[in-house]
């Protein structure tokens, strides 16, 4: 099982001027907190969490409080579909994975794996189920969409 989450809504500009440093907006902080309500019962206990090391993704997972054990990776920052899929395949994982990242990479990955056109807007999540026990076999059109959603906040 693969859970993909796009970071919550971020501010347009960071004080530093670097995209990597953009923090969540007020709406984004509300979205991230709502993710806990929407996903906490859906994520199995043995889920492993991987998150881009950008500020907005780190804040999203922190406020969502989905896990205390998270691996932060610079390589997931603005990663493209192929890079993310290679990372997941190389994990050889037999447990569920939750990945918090950025567009366009995660939307393209969800579309590629499911064979459907999927757009992950900010704070949107999708759960994909595979007929394989090992992530090394995840490939084009091999997943079924189990569920998806997005916190609706003002």
CATH topology: Rossmann fold
What about the largest sheet?
Answer: 6 strands, mixed
Oligomer: single chain
CATH H level, superfamily name: Phosphoglycerate mutase-like
Could you say how many structural domains there are in total? Answer: 1
Radius of gyration: 14 Å
Q: Helical region count?
A: 4
Kindly report how far apart the N and C termini lie: 31 Å
CATH C-level label? Alpha Beta
How would you characterize this protein structure?
By secondary structure, the protein is of the alpha/beta class. It has one domain (2-149): Phosphoglycerate mutase-like (Rossmann fold, 3-Layer(aba) Sandwich). The chain is built from four helices and six strands, in the order βαβαβαβαββ. The chain has helices spanning 26-39, 55-64, 81-91, 105-114; strands at residues 2-6, 48-52, 70-73, 97-101, 125-129, 144-149. A six-stranded mixed beta sheet has the order 3-2-4-1-5-6, sandwiched between helices. α2 links the parallel β2 (48-52) and β3. α1 crosses α2 and α3 crosses α4. The chain is globular, with a radius of gyration of 14 Å. The N and C termini lie far apart (31 Å). 37% of the residues are buried. The model has no long low-confidence stretch (mean pLDDT 96).
Outline:
This protein has 154 residues and is an alpha/beta fold. It has helices at residues 26-39, 55-64, 81-91, 105-114, and strands at 2-6, 48-52, 70-73, 97-101, 125-129, 144-149.
């Amino acid at each position: 099982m693969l859970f993909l989450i796009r970071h919550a809504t971020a501010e347009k500009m960071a004080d530093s001027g670097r995209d990597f440093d953009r923090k969540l907006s007020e709406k984004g902080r509300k979205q991230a907190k709502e993710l806990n309500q929407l996903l906490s019962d859906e994520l199995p206990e043995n889920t492993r969490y991987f998150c881009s090391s950008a500020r907005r993704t780190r804040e999203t997972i922190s406020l969502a409080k989905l896990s205390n054990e998270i691996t932060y990776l610079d390589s997931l920052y603005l990663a493209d579909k192929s890079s993310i899929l290679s990372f997941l395949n190389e994990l050889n994982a037999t447990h569920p994975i939750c990945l918090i990242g950025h567009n366009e990479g995660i939307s393209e990955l969800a579309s590629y794996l499911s064979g459907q056109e999927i757009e992950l807007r900010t704070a949107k999540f999708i759960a994909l189920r595979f007929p394989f026990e090992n992530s090394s076999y995840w490939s084009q059109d091999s997943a079924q969409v189990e569920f998806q959603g997005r916190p609706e906040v003002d």
